[in-house]
Design goal:
This protein has 173 residues and is an alpha/beta fold. Helix content is 47%, strand content 14%.
Amino acid sequence: MHRTAAYIRVSSKSQDHATQKAAIERAASARGDSIAAWYAEKQSAKSLARAELHRLRNDARAGALGRLYVFRLDRLTRSGIRDTLGLIEELQRHGVDVVSVADGFDLNGTAAEVVLAVMAWAAKMERVAINERIAAARERVESDGGRWGRPRRMGRDEVERAADMRASGRTVR
């Protein structure tokens, strides 16, 4: 049985899938499709090693998918042209018609590989730019005497007490 599925991904726990899901449902409905399976995760796309993507790929290999909706190609991967082209080709080789809702081009056309390569490059460059902005913000905060990262859960007294207890042979817990 070939089913229609959708893959949605956000990078951080504070984000949700609602916008992507609604856009995909509208696009699928306009094509007369109903989404039978959702693959959703909250994880960076800097690597292809993601649980839901792995499950999706296994289902494609098993012939269980006929059409896959994604909000944008960068939801699948931001790790470069090779990974993007390889993943799309793998899915298509197993009979999956990949539909990108927001990118605005057909992944099956004659110029699809060129457009895919450009989109994959742009996604990777966006990931690089995000990392650069984070590094610059961290440097600015630390140069102003601030502390980067999550707030400490223990005060200085508690940290010292824990260190003393650890030195006396007690476990960290």
